[in-house]
Amino acid sequence: MATQTARQIIRIDEDLCDGCGQCVTACAEGALALIDGKARLVTESFCDGLGACIGECPQGALTIEMRDADVFDESAAEAQAAHAAHHAAGGDAEAEPESLACGCPGSMVETLRPCGATEVPDGTESAVGIGDRVTPESQLTNWPVQIHLLPIDAPYYAGADLLLAADCVPFAHAGFHEDLLRGRTLAIGCPKLDDAISYIEKLARILGANDIRSLTVAHMEVPCCHGLTHVAAQAVAKSGKQIPVETVVIGRDGTRKS
User: What is the pLDDT of residues 6-15, one digit of tens each?
Assistant: First the structure.
């Protein structure tokens, strides 16, 4: 059992917290996490009580309080941060397929040819018929697409325009393939439910190691989804590159707001 003492430690007002996740990415010790849409202190011994996360909260939900808490374990916090960074950067990548519960080879890197590039005799782009309807074909050019599974280096990054999309965007925006995905390399993730720190580290490695021309961030209009813009900004800063970033906001009704 951890030793407790009266000390300063973070306090989270869940009524004010909107689940944006910016405090989670600001906590270098990994003491905070998003659980059920709210920021929570999950490991007292990782919180140093200095409050570096406070300035990142747009809702003022974080304060420092004095109470009995587990003693801050600096070495354990550093080890956890190093482990998270190593995993996010693709450490032990060769063993990754074996670690998947299904043993699935679905993380194998592939460069895909957009189906929509095929032309039909009248010069219009090819489409796939589903029942009595005709829908545009896929514009996906890379696999995998989930940030945790993306390789650090792959042929499809060369001179690429990278699209960083919240994973709800393709479901909400009917024109996702033509409006956003066409001509871009895709990376998807959820800033509310996943580890934003690992996203930042992984994307920074990808941006730093490759010739990425631009980064487009597409997220939903809901507050928690705005955390993806923070992830993108931090990743670009860490990469040491000057990469132009554009933000696209999709409404809950599927319309493009910006």
Answer: 999 999 999 9
Tell me if 28 is assigned to some domain: yes
Number of domains in the chain: 2
- Strand ranges, E, within the chain: 4-12, 32-35, 38-41, 62-70, 110-111, 127-130, 133-136, 142-143, 160-166, 185-189, 212-220, 245-250
Residues 72 and 159 in one domain: no
Domain with 16, as residue range(s), is: 4-88
Of 148, 149, 126, 152, the closest CA to residue 137 belongs to: 126
Which residue type is seen at 218? Answer: A
pTM over 0.70: no
| Strands of 160-166's sheet in order across | 185-189, 160-166, 212-220, 245-250
Residues 220 and 112 in one domain: yes
Cα(233)–Cα(245) distance, rounded to whole angstroms?
8
Per residue in 83-142, pLDDT (tens digit) is 655 555 555 544 444 344 344 555 567 777 765 544 444 444 445 555 555 556 899 999
CATH number of the domain enclosing 69: 3.30.70.20
Residues 6 or more apart in contact with residue 175 via CB below 8 angstroms: 256
Sort strands 133-136 and 127-130 into parallel, antiparallel or unpaired: antiparallel
Residue 95 lies in a domain: no
Is 196 inside any structural domain?
Answer: yes
Question: Do the Cβ atoms of 249 and 219 come closer than 8 Å?
Answer: yes
Assigned domain for 205 exists? yes
Q: Is the bond preceding 97 in cis, omega lying within 30 degrees of 0? A: no
Q: Do residues 59 and 187 both lie within one domain?
A: no
Q: How many CB atoms lie within 10 A of CB 43?
A: 18
Residue 93 vs residues 17, 57, 108: alpha-carbon distances, Å = 35, 34, 11
